[in-house]
Write a structure and sequence with these properties.
single chain, alpha/beta, Spore Coat Polysaccharide Biosynthesis Protein SpsA, Chain A, 2 domains, six-stranded mixed β-sheet, five-stranded mixed β-sheet, 7 helices, 21 strands, 32% strand
Length: 285
């Protein structure tokens, strides 16, 4: 969020679904960031096209639903790019959507965005990129015209890359533009991806795995390859390997966890893939 605000984007709408209160508690109305933050609640989860459609009244903010443009930024990636340059490319291309893409680092894993002469001409799933095709990877930032989503039914799940965008390209081959750049990209969409990213950043920038804010780790505890957030207590003789310990967690004496996300139990029922362990919610990965 601070990355967007530092680049002049200070009117923000967040899609919420899983444990929304935890995000609202952290961000509030955005005043601490110098921004306006509002929320769009998804029940059920509406997908990469259904989500923007549901949030459209907030995004256009009183204008005609078919008018205006906005950024869409995925919440499960880390990157850095010139947002003004992305907007310039979008306006010059006269496209409905402009996607920021980089040369595909893992065509076997990440689906490919197929590009020709600055235009997106197709999409391929991971491992299915055609031989000889110019394959790029979408890094989770795009500019879109509001009219792209205004024709969709509100509250109905819909996907962009594999559903809506191919339809737009079939109607107009110039509908989706590509902003091809060299930019950093890290996937943080799963606990395992998040931990690996934290370890990579630690290797590059020094020890950032353990927050200094209210963290207490007993001298007898062994904490290896583990990200420790704020206000965490780790008791005596604890063993943590390849874990993520979230804000406010108290890991009791003698605990043993490996490849787990560990969070304090705040009254919510455990979600899919989660279990209760005393006052903690545990999710293995």
């Amino acid at each position: 969020m601070s990355w967007l605000v530092s680049r002049g984007v200070d009117d923000l709408v967040l899609n919420l679904h899983h444990r929304p209160a935890t995000i609202c508690r952290e961000l509030g109305d955005g005043g601490d960031l110098g921004a306006r933050v509002r929320y769009s609640w998804e029940h059920p989860l509406l997908g990469s096209a259904g989500g923007p459609r549901h949030a459209l009244p907030l995004l256009v903010d009183g204008r005609d639903p078919g008018d205006g443009q906005f950024l869409i930024v995925n919440g499960d990636t880390l990157t850095d790019l010139d947002l003004a340059a992305l907007g310039d490319v979008h306006h010059a291309a006269g496209a409905l959507v402009t996607m920021a893409v980089i040369p595909n680092p893992r065509p076997d894993v990440y689906g490919g965005v197929l590009v020709a002469e600055g235009r997106v001409v197709g999409f391929a799933r991971g491992g299915e990129v055609p031989v000889g095709a110019d394959s790029f990877h979408f890094i989770g930032v795009q500019v879109a015209d509001a009219r792209v989503f205004s024709t969709l039914a509100d509250g109905v799940p819909a996907e962009s890359v594999m559903q809506l965008y191919p339809k737009l390209m079939a109607e107009d081959p110039r509908a989706i533009a590509a902003h091809v750049i060299e930019a950093p990209f890290r996937d943080v969409g799963t606990p395992a991806d998040y931990l690996q990213t934290a370890l990579d950043l630690t290797a590059a920038e020094g020890d950032r795995l353990v927050s200094q804010a209210g963290v207490r780790i007993h001298a007898s505890a062994r904490v290896q390859r583990t990200a420790v957030w704020e206000n965490v207590t780790i008791g005596a003789d604890v063993r943590l390997d390849d874990c993520i310990v979230c804000d406010g967690a108290h890991v009791p004496d003698g605990s043993r966890y490996q490849r787990c996300a560990i969070a304090p139990h705040l009254g919510e029922a455990p979600g899919k893939g989660e279990r209760l362990s005393g006052d903690l919610i545990i999710r293995e990965f």
